[in-house]
Write a structure and sequence with these properties.
Number of helices: 0
Radius of gyration: 14 Å
Distance between the termini: 41 Å
Largest sheet: 7 strands, mixed
Oligomer: single chain
Structural class: mainly beta
Strand content: over 45%
């Protein structure tokens, strides 16, 4: 079983920065995909960034050039460095890990951490 715990959210002014962390524990087998999603009140959950392996990342167009995802496979932790934050970045940010087991896979989600960008 897998448990994900996010941290690092908070209140920040426009143009500021935050670094989110997601610590995974349990049966984290390889290969796996680690990523971040976000959901604002009344909105659908949307993709932010993911990493299918160390050194490889994909980003949503809305955050490309501002956010950087990294992963530490020894610590089973994924990070999201968020720079040049905008009010529209305000949302609950959720960590996701997709663990592959042979020909099948399982998705795991954290509880989320609140990010509020406001002056």
């Amino acid at each position: 079983q897998v448990r994900l715990v996010e941290s690092g959210g908070g209140l920040v002014q426009p143009g500021g920065s935050l670094r989110l962390s997601c610590a995974a524990s349990g049966n984290i087998f390889s290969p796996n995909v680690m990523g971040w999603y976000r959901q604002a009140p009344g909105k659908q959950r949307e993709f932010v960034a993911l990493s299918p392996s160390r050194g490889m990342t994909n980003y949503a167009d809305s955050v490309k050039g501002r956010f950087t995802l990294s992963r530490d496979d020894v610590k089973n932790t994924v990070y999201l460095q968020m720079n040049s934050l905008k009010p529209e970045d305000t949302a609950v940010y959720l960590c996701n890990v997709r663990v592959y087991r042979g020909s099948i896979w399982d998705d795991y989600w954290g509880q989320g951490t609140q990010v509020t960008v406001s002056s």
